[in-house]
Design a protein that fits this description.
By secondary structure, the protein is mostly helical. The protein has helices spanning 2-31, 34-39, 47-56, 63-71, 75-81, 107-125, 133-141, 149-165, 167-179; strands at 92-95, 99-102, 191-192. The longest helix has 30 residues, at 2-31. 31% of the residues are buried.
Length: 193
């Protein structure tokens, strides 16, 4: 029975992460992030991340959350965030003197992060998805406290825009912003949290 359980989970997990990847790819292409769309989340197919997905697959939330609930941490998540620059955690470090240090994310990774959040919300919410879901998830997790203030401001602006004006408008704005990066990308020092 156990091998059949894992075989079924492997197929379902593969389908879920592939659906997510293809959805992110489509959104990234609409914004003009072709290379990032193609390379998005390839680490999810690595043994470290894929086997966790098979073991903890549920279909309605990330297997990393289930692994974290059982073990107190997620080895898969640590692997994933260390290899994918569209996660804000990639840009957070600890300094002995300053404590938590958040770096400002480059614009292209903020835009990919928004595409990632939309896609994850669509995949995990299914029929219940609305353009308000990504913002609701962000607010419920209180992630903003670890983000660089300018990264947080742009992420929140885009998530509220998505909720209020819809996906088509928001992706169009993101495409426009990508062509005008100076509006976001000024050089700054890291900010202590």
């Amino acid at each position: 029975m156990r091998p059949l359980f894992y075989a079924k989970n492997a197929i379902q997990h593969f389908c879920t992460i592939t659906k997510h990847k293809l959805t992110v790819m489509d959104l990234c292409f609409k914004v003009g992030l072709i290379r990032q769309g193609l390379a998005h989340d390839l680490s999810k197919y690595s043994p470290t991340e894929f086997m966790t997905g098979v073991r903890y697959f549920q279909g309605v939330r990330s297997p990393n959350a289930a692994e974290r609930q059982e073990l107190g941490y997620s080895r898969s998540w640590l692997h994933h965030k260390g290899r994918n620059r569209h996660h804000y955690e990639y840009w957070v470090d600890v300094d002995k003197k300053r404590g938590w240090v958040s770096l400002k994310m480059p614009l292209r990774f903020v835009l990919e992060m928004v595409c990632d959040r939309i896609a994850a919300s669509k995949v995990y919410s299914g029929q219940d998805y609305t353009d308000a879901v990504p913002l609701g998830y962000y607010l419920s997790k209180q992630e903003g406290r670890l983000l660089h203030p300018e990264t947080r401001a742009l992420l929140e602006k885009l998530l509220y825009m998505l909720r209020d004006k819809g996906e088509h408008y928001t992706l169009g704005y993101m495409r426009w912003l990508r062509r005008h990066p100076a509006l976001y990308e000024r050089r700054e020092q890291p900010v202590r949290q």
